[in-house]
Amino acid sequence: SSTTGFGGDSAAQFFAAHGLTDPDSIEKIRGRTGYYSAMVPDVPRSFTRLMDGMDLRIAGRRWRCISGYGHAPEHIALYCDDATLPAPVLIGGDMMLPRISTNISVYDTEPESNPLALFLASIDKFKALAPNTLTLPSHGKPFEGLHTRIQQLHDHHRDRLEEVIEACTASPCNAADILPVMFKRTLDLHQTTFAMGEAIAHLHLLWFEGRLQRRLNADGIYRFSCSEQPR
Prior knowledge:
It is built from 6 helices and 7 strands. By secondary structure, it is of the alpha+beta class.
């Protein structure tokens, strides 16, 4: 599909509008029409939707569904505090990872979105869970210290947002300008598409909060600058 946010003409135009101007990279993105769909199974024609607060019975235990947003349009984590378990268990999926931070990106499929705000609000739901909860993530090993990890993720994104504000205060920036601010290493094209989405997500949160202004310049590129007054 060309509508996954990872490739095709729409994705190429979107990244170009946010400052990715290298012709070779843009052409490669334009040509990746089946990039994401080749890595995942087809979407089923029918399904049973899990929703926030629903209970599932698995092997005689009750698991509560906890919805999350920002990483995906909708994500369900499962929580069980059955007395037969040594400690409560959270199947955290991609919303709560032990070492790396979850990818939070804006793509052409929802170009005006504010996923980072949704993600930060979503992980705060986990604060209501027991402090001794064992979290099973989608990447990395099971871990304890759920409440500490929630705060670490807030601190991580707060620090990045401050770096972005500092850069945009010095001069108007597009998302491509922000890449070396947020990522201190060389990125290949696969990493660049993720990084561009993350950079836009951080810019958008600050824009939605009124801390940055966004302008579409004559060259067709969006640039963000420090706001004097919140909108």
